[in-house]
Design goal:
Layout: H1 2-28, H2 32-39, H3 55-62, H4 69-83, H5 98-102
């Protein structure tokens, strides 16, 4: 009986050590999206390079310096959902995303912040 208990204890200790080692490996790994973002500095800034769920964080950054946060976020997200890109920075740089740059209001002004 004691032999079975000690054998079970050794097995559990081995299993615990294996799982801990495996979990530590997973924490250090990078996801394919992180690899793509690190390899391409223009990720998210060129037309069609974002996924729809990535628009909100990009627009938060784009609208961070404005005092008109709500309308900026509304139009930025609208533009991002259509163009799937948001220019880098808080102002300008629209040339990297032609769709974002060329979408105009009825009056001819820029639609996207």
């Amino acid at each position: 009986m004691a032999r079975k208990l000690s054998l079970l204890l050794v097995f559990v200790a081995f299993l615990l050590a294996f799982l801990t080692e495996n979990q530590a490996f997973k924490v250090g790994q990078t996801t394919p999206l992180q690899k793509l973002q690190s390899n391409h500095p223009m990720y998210g800034a060129t037309q069609g390079s974002l996924r729809p769920q990535e628009c909100t964080p990009r627009c938060n950054n784009r609208c961070s310096a404005t005092s008109h946060k709500k309308p900026c976020m509304f139009f930025c997200q609208k533009c991002c959902s259509k163009c799937l890109c948001v220019p880098p920075g808080t102002y300008g740089n629209k040339q990297v995303c032609p769709c974002y740059n060329n979408w105009k209001t009825k009056q001819g002004g820029p639609k996207c912040p």
